[in-house]
């Protein structure tokens, strides 16, 4: 490393692994990346996001929610055995899967909204691949040291020390990966019970298989492949370009103030050469987890994690220059500032056109303002996202938790009894969708003179009868409806089955058909 012009800024021997100037072949062997530890406001924000997201993932299955004695007490549970999805006070049945579809729609529209406004913020901060790679890098740095130490260790011969460090690192990675797979299965069964079953070796084989698969994928993708997942496996870098426009925020190298670069500022100034603020220290390259050089412009590999901003701001602080040589900026602002720095395109970037007499920046420069991201596209995405969310909320608040379905017997469709009356058979299904028992009244509406009785309910035929619906269960009844011959009005008469909660909270109707023989001619 060499010191630049008696400042305390060091030049790092860092080279982009896939420079925009010399793109690597698609099937080139991977070049290892050794990201340097970064510090700054974006790094602190990433620490916060990592803590929150990992906390949510690992701790959510252990949250409790009291639903009474007839339902599980796990706050978030995908109960596949009973075909239920519990999310705190919300319970979703299989036929209500459209709620999940709605959430997926909101997630997709939300991703479009975020990308169109602040670029690949999802990729840089909250994507599981980014979060787990960050976590694995924390372990790697703690054991093997920062960038230079890791590079030296990687290039050195295999010694007992190197073997011990590598074994320790990979062992901890495997523990994290196993914890990741283990946490996932707790979303599908009662977590305290399942962890005991897993520890005692009596859990279902699918639980161990799931842990094994997720352990292998987390270890491989987060520890070994890292940036290759984002570059080669993830489709989002190819899609995101369609989401961006000239007012989208992206991490940008502002070459209108950084060029021409110079490693020897004093010598260049003494020679009367124009110089920009970039001292070519490569700090931005050294901290990049994707191994790219942001000074090459927008690239598919950039996940906009903004660590290069922190690195560059640190260098600018040491040099006593204004921060923001690398910053979040929009293309429209960048183009406007380039026009100032190039005299409306009449010359190459001239750093003397940017500063004013006080050493600050020219008043003609354009700076980002929050209102710029609120444009038509933003409101369209926000409106669509809000509309789906509002529809889901309204549906949740107004949905019925008592349902009725009736199936007419196919063979025979009717039976003539000894007294001449006609009897039809029906399978009546009562669905109680709350976790508590309900007293239900089943009533006939229409069909004059008709009476009914249910198999298993020892009551005389009548127009209605009472039954008990178990909590969170489907109750199936075999019901026979009989109508006297003198009351029959045709070969097919419509009538209704009605069920009603005795508490009077909910009811449901189903229109059925009563079949009879054709009258003799």
Please trace the helix and strand order, writing H or E for each element: HEEEHHHHHHHHHEHHHHEHHEEEEEEEEE
Q: Return the average pLDDT rounded to an integer.
A: 88
Total count of helical runs of at least 4 residues: 16
Helix content: 25-40%
**What structural class should be given to the helix and strand makeup?**
alpha+beta
Extract low-pLDDT stretches. none
- Estimate the strand proportion: 15-25%
Largest sheet: 5 strands, antiparallel
Radius of gyration: 34 Å
Shape: elongated
Topology (elements, then pairings):
Elements (H helix, E strand, L loop, with lengths): L40 H19 L16 E4 L4 E4 L2 E3 L5 H21 L2 H6 L1 H17 L2 H9 L4 H26 L5 H10 L4 H21 L1 H7 L2 H8 L6 E4 L1 H4 L6 H6 L12 H5 L19 H13 L6 E4 L1 H11 L34 H23 L3 E7 L6 E2 L5 E11 L5 E8 L5 E4 L9 E6 L3 E11 L8 E10 L5 E9 L6
Antiparallel strand pairs: 1-2, 2-3, 4-5, 6-8, 7-8, 8-12, 9-11, 9-13, 10-12, 13-14
Helix pairs in contact: 1-4, 2-16, 4-6, 4-8, 6-8
Structural notes for this entry:
This protein is an alpha+beta fold. It is 40% helix and 17% strand. It has helices at residues 41-59, 98-118, 121-126, 128-144, 147-155, 160-185, 191-200, 205-225, 227-233, 236-243, 255-258, 265-270, 283-287, 307-319, 331-341, 376-398; strands spanning 76-79, 84-87, 90-92, 250-253, 326-329, 402-408, 415-416, 422-432, 438-445, 451-454, 464-469, 473-483, 492-501, 507-515. The strands form four sheets. Strands 6, 7, 8, 10 and 12 form a five-stranded antiparallel beta sheet that branches. Strands 11-9-13-14 form a four-stranded antiparallel beta sheet, with no helix packed on it. The protein has a three-stranded antiparallel beta sheet with strand order 1-2-3, with no helix packed on it. A hairpin with a 4-residue loop joins β1 (76-79) and β2 (84-87). α1 crosses α4 (128-144), α4 (128-144) crosses α8 (205-225) and α6 (160-185) crosses α8 (205-225). The mean pLDDT is 88.
């Amino acid at each position: 490393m060499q010191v630049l012009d008696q400042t305390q800024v060091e030049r790092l021997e860092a080279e982009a692994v896939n420079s925009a100037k010399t793109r690597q072949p698609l099937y080139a062997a991977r070049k290892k990346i050794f990201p340097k530890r970064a510090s700054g406001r974006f790094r602190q924000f990433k620490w916060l996001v990592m803590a929150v997201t990992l906390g949510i993932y690992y701790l959510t299955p252990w949250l409790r929610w009291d639903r009474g004695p007839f339902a599980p007490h796990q706050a978030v549970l995908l109960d596949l055995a009973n075909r239920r999805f519990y999310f705190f006070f919300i319970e979703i049945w299989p036929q209500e899967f459209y709620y999940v579809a709605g959430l997926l729609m909101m997630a997709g529209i939300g991703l479009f909204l975020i990308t169109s406004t602040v670029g690949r913020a999802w990729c840089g901060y909250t994507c599981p691949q980014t979060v787990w790679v960050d976590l694995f890098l924390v372990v790697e740095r703690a054991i093997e040291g920062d960038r230079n130490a890791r590079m030296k260790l990687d290039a050195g011969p295999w010694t007992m020390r190197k073997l011990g460090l590598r074994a320790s690192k990979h062992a901890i990675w495997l523990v994290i990966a196993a914890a990741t797979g283990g946490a996932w299965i707790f979303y599908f069964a009662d977590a305290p019970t399942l962890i005991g079953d897993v520890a005692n070796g009596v859990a279902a084989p699918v639980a161990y298989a799931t842990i094994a698969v997720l352990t292998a994928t987390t270890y491989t993708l987060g520890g070994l492949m890292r940036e290759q997942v984002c570059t080669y496996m993830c489709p989002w870098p190819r899609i995101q370009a369609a989401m961006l426009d000239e007012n989208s925020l992206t991490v940008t190298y502002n070459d209108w103030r950084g060029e021409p670069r110079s490693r020897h500022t004093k010598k260049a100034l003494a020679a009367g050469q124009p110089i920009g603020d970039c001292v070519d220290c490569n700090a931005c390259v050294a901290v990049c987890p994707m191994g790219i050089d942001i000074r090459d412009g927008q690239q598919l590999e950039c996940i906009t994690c903004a660590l290069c901003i922190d690195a560059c701001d640190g260098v600018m602080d040491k040099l006593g220059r204004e921060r923001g040589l690398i910053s979040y900026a929009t293309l429209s602002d960048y183009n406007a500032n380039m026009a100032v720095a190039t005299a409306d395109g009449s010359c190459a970037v001239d750093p003397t056109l940017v500063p004013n007499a006080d050493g600050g920046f020219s008043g003609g420069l354009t700076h980002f303002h929050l209102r710029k991201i609120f444009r038509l596209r933003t409101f369209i995405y926000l409106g669509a996202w809000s509309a789906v969310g509002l529809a889901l909320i309204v549906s949740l608040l107004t949905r019925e938790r008592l349902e009725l379905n009736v199936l007419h017997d196919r063979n025979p469709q009717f039976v003539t009894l000894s007294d001449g009356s006609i009897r039809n058979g029906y399978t009546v299904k009562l669905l109680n969708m709350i976790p508590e028992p309900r007293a239900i009244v089943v009533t006939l509406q229409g069909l004059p003179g008709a009476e009914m009785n249910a198999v298993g309910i020892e009551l005389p035929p009548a127009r209605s009868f009472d039954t008990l619906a178990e909590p969170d269960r489907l109750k199936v009844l075999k019901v026979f409806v009989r109508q006297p011959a003198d009351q029959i009005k045709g070969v097919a008469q419509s009538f209704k089955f009605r069920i009603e909660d005795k508490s009077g909270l909910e009811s449901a109707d189903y229109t059925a058909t009563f079949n009879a023989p054709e009258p003799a001619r």
